[in-house]
Amino acid sequence: MSPDGCILDDQRPRSEAIGKMVDAALEEIRALYLSDEIPWIVGYSGGKDSTATLQLVWEALVGLDPDQRTKIVYVITNDTLVENPMVASWVIQSHKKIKESATRTNLPILPHMLHPELSDTFWVNLIGRGYPAPRPRFRWCTERLKIGPSDKFVTNVVSKHGEAIFVLGTRRAESSARAHSMNRYAAMSKRELLSPSASLANCSVYSPIRNWTNNDVWAFLLLQENPWGHDNEELFELYQGATPDRECPFQLETGLPSCGDSRFGCWVCTLVDKDRSLQAMIQNDEDLKWMSPLLELRDELNTRPDSHWRDFRRMSGAVQLLSDGRPVPGPYTQVVREGWLKKLLKAQTWLRDNAAEAVRHRDLITLEELELIRKIWVFEKHEIEDSLPRIYEETIGQPYPGVRIDDNVVFGQEEIDVLRQVAGGDTLHFELCRDLLALESGYRTTVRRARIYDTLEGAFAKSFYADEQDATDRAMSFKKLTAAVESARQIKDDYSLDDLLSALSDL
């Protein structure tokens, strides 16, 4: 029966065909499981492919005698903390059911929810450090939010057991690129069914549904009950809601649109032009209109070009030039970072008041992230006005719950206003004065003041310019000077110092 309750005309032959395919997969899984003592790690995102994979592994273990279930099957899920709230809620509930059901049925299945390190989270880097929104050529988020936590977990398992088998829901039918990649690694395999991991030593990859189609996956999920008690029809509806015009049929023939093309991920993702799944969910379901502020914030983050939001200096303070002579844009400016924080906190307040009950209490940004962002602003960027608590209180309407920072470190608003007046409204000179005051305060209580002069010199080097044009002109002169010196160095004949100085004087 399809999700809308209609009986499928060829449900019986379809069910028989799926049954044979599933039986073959279960036999293969059991044989591989029993062939050694290497633990398994199932990558589970809550999507259709990983759900089908875990369901097959689960049913294969159920079909074994208890004394044959000798090795652990870890189930890992990456919560990037910026997942689509509805999908995140779905996965969290699924994890709870997996743990409860596995314990109740005495299966060696251990679920683990993985999170990025606090210093690697999306908002700590974007709002805290000022990293620009990710782009295809600057995918700083993927390694920090997804790959890092998984690699750390797998590495720990490998160090404990010597080896591990990563069980993934990858399929050749996903795309030609996926098929090419799977075939390439399969060709390097030293053991049947197992491919070498691209990045992890002593870790092999096994893909039980490698040759399944979208049709096969959905047919399996909808015709066979989920063994840990999560509703696969609700999963189908989740995909359906994330598909434009809800065109997501249970396919019985080729050529029809499929739910397989829906992609769930981070709601802040700017690696694609449009978040079509989030758009579709809002469009298709009146009860999901509360996600509109998230889509608006995501689309604003995706503004291109964004150089007007970014410092003309790199994170280190250096000025580098593009081929056309313009400075390479650096991190978001202080004003822009504070603006993103305000908009994010407003969106979080909106969710608290309007979201579905299941996600109403999920933080878009955690207190731990806010605390680290605050420390980065005050102690690394020397923004000693300590604006984060004020922004929080003005936006949320409640006292900031974080810890107090030493009054000797931060300045009050009146002191900051006086400092701006002393700087004469010059932003760069204000930043220089503020940096020097922050550095002096930081060294005040230290016994050894090693490298203090280098630190002070770095502050002057970052903000001594008259303005951006002055910085650009100086960087261009330095570039020409460096090129001239390099050219002189490469000349094999004698090159007198007078000749070199004469050449450089023309710059």
Question: Can you put this structure into words, describing what you see?
Answer:
This protein has 507 residues and is mainly alpha-helical. Among the domains are: 11-122 and 135-238 and 247-257, HUPs (Rossmann fold, 3-Layer(aba) Sandwich); 469-505. Helix content is 50%, strand content 5%. It has 18 helices and six strands. A six-stranded mixed beta sheet has the order 3-2-1-4-6-5, with helices on both faces. Strand 5 (195-196) and strand 6 form a beta hairpin. The longest helix has 24 residues, at 11-34. The radius of gyration is 28 Å and the shape is globular. The termini are far apart. The relative contact order is 0.09.
> Topology as H/E string?
HEHEHEHHEHEEHHHHHHHHHHHH
Based on the coordinates given, report the CATH architecture of one domain: 3-Layer(aba) Sandwich
Work out the oligomeric state of the chains in this entry. Answer: single chain
Shape: globular
Mean pLDDT reading: 86
For the largest sheet, list the strands in their spatial order: 3-2-1-4-6-5
> Residue share in helices?
40-55%
Q: DSSP helix count?
A: 18
User: Which structural category fits the helices and strands?
Assistant: mainly alpha
- Name of the CATH homologous superfamily of one domain: HUPs
Please summarize the sheet with the most strands: 6 strands, mixed
How much of the sequence lies in strands comes to 5-15%
* CATH structural class of one domain: Alpha Beta
As a whole number of angstroms, the C-alpha radius of gyration is 28 Å
**Poorly predicted parts:** 1-13, 245-261
What is the CATH T-level topology of one domain? Rossmann fold
State the end-to-end distance.
79 Å
SS elements, strand count: 6
